[in-house]
Design goal:
- This protein is an alpha/beta fold and 139 residues long.
- It has one domain: YqgF/RNase H-like domain (Nucleotidyltransferase, domain 5).
- Helices cover 40% and strands 22% of the residues.
- The chain has a five-stranded mixed β-sheet with strand order 3-2-1-4-5, sandwiched between helices.
- Strand 4, helix 2 and strand 5 form a beta-alpha-beta unit.
- It is globular.
- The two termini are 17 Å apart.
- The model has no long low-confidence stretch (mean pLDDT 93).
- One of its GO terms (biological process) is nucleobase-containing compound metabolic process.
- InterPro entries: RNaseH-like_sf, YqgF/RNaseH-like_dom_sf.
Length: 139
Amino acid sequence: MIFAIDPGSEKTGTAVVSEDGSLVTKAIVPTPELGDYLSRVYETHPFSHIVMGDGTNHKKLQPLVEQWIARDHQDITFSLTDEKFTTVEGRKLYFKYTPRRGWRRFVPLSFQYPPEPVDDFVAWIIGRRYLAKQRGGNP
């Protein structure tokens, strides 16, 4: 399993993704709490790799993740992956897995914006991109 991160300045999307790309768990956590969250998730879903999107905010979070690995988890590997267009893909994935209710059912998706943050879906996409790259395929 891998732990995927969509780094943000205030909130960070996270997803634990199995080797076949399926979602194990996802969450949006306050960015300052990411280290504690990594520890909690690792207890229930031990992962062997952490992948982070290479967007602007990764420069703040990468040292935190590397310290977490160095402190107690030297067997876990870390990498960055391309984050281009993941937010757009995250919105599509959100609507695929979140049924529309009420008036939203009648409005085309191209005119809609998710009513809540999609950072966790974006993290899932980052994880899937990493796995596809490892297999030598397209994301």
